[in-house]
Write a structure and sequence with these properties.
The protein is α+β, with helices and mostly antiparallel strands and 371 residues long. The protein folds into three domains: 113 residues, DNA Polymerase III, Chain A, domain 2; 122 residues, Roll (DNA Polymerase III, Chain A, domain 2); 111 residues, DNA Polymerase III, Chain A, domain 2 (Roll). The chain contains seven helices and 25 strands. The chain has a twelve-stranded antiparallel beta sheet with strand order 14-11-12-13-25-24-23-18-21-20-19-22. A hairpin with a 2-residue loop joins strand 19 and strand 20. Helix 1 runs antiparallel to helix 2 and helix 6 packs antiparallel against helix 7. The N and C termini lie far apart (69 Å).
Length: 371
Amino acid sequence: MKFSCDQQVLNKALNIVSKAVSTRTTIPTLKGILLEIKEEGILTMTASDMDISIEEKLNVNSYESGAVIVPAKLFGDVIRKLPSGEVSINVEEEKINIKCMNAEFSLIGMPADEFPNIKSIEEESREISFDKEMLVNMIRKTSFAASIDQTKGIVTGVLIDIKPDYMNMVAIDGYRMAIVKEDIVSLSDDKIIISGRIMNEISKILTETGYENNDIKMVVTDKNAAIYVDNVKIMTRLMVGEFIRYNDILPKEFRLEVKVNRGDLTESIERASLLSKEGKNNLIKLSIRNNIMTITSHSEEGNVKEEVLVEKTGDDIDIGFNSKYMLDILRAADDEYIRMFFRDSVTACLVCPMEGESYKYLLLPVRISNY
């Protein structure tokens, strides 16, 4: 096997494919990237950790067919450090010779037939089309709320709930819930659950590809999903199970509505959280009276008090929150002004845009009886 390719093009592809390389495995082949030439002038690069697989195709020059598994980290480091120019790679019996201008390396690879078999999408599949920027934005606004506790099963995933004319993306971890809605056109209803960790990787890949094509195709079966964008294919296993009926969790009654400048509230909570980190549960207290929201936090290190102007309709309230969880929500909501709904000090707060239903965030309070 041999080929030549521009160093920058090869390095860019390696940066994308290597996101699927396993870092916590004892299986040597999962620490590698499969390089394979079957078609004329096409190099296929593949990596997998068995949960997510990434494949990218490159046009190469001076090629001969063949395949080898290269050590992902070392091979990637070598290519990245090479000077900008044409890289020539020649493989003979798993010995990989790399030349670029005055630099030459020799690495030891592994037989290609030891690479795990990555199944293709089955024939009985359905296809969904997305706008790339829309999908990346929806992941950013929801995935932070998926549980990172692997013992919690299905709630470590992000639900893609597709209806004929809109799509909801939902994540929940037991303390907070994120629902983001976008208009799409679909031929049928569908529900897909993908690991939150993998959704974040998909977002990074789509952001970093830098390709001009903004159209994404997702092909889905009952067990797998494949995302196609330009020359990149991302395959992942779907999570199996019944996701929480998220609409049933949303509170139906409120006694207080607050309209507030999101930026002002974010900055105030960021300052208050400097002390909340020193205490328990990152606790901050919100006291809403008249048109003032007073934010306080105290620990053994000191105290802080912030005041934010709001438009208030309804009862006064004192309620506590984990400042980190609240900041995650405020940073995900892009609007200048937001609405916050409260019922009492032990019921979840709902955060919504001023108009429409583009997002809904639910956050459970922290008890402040001894605050």
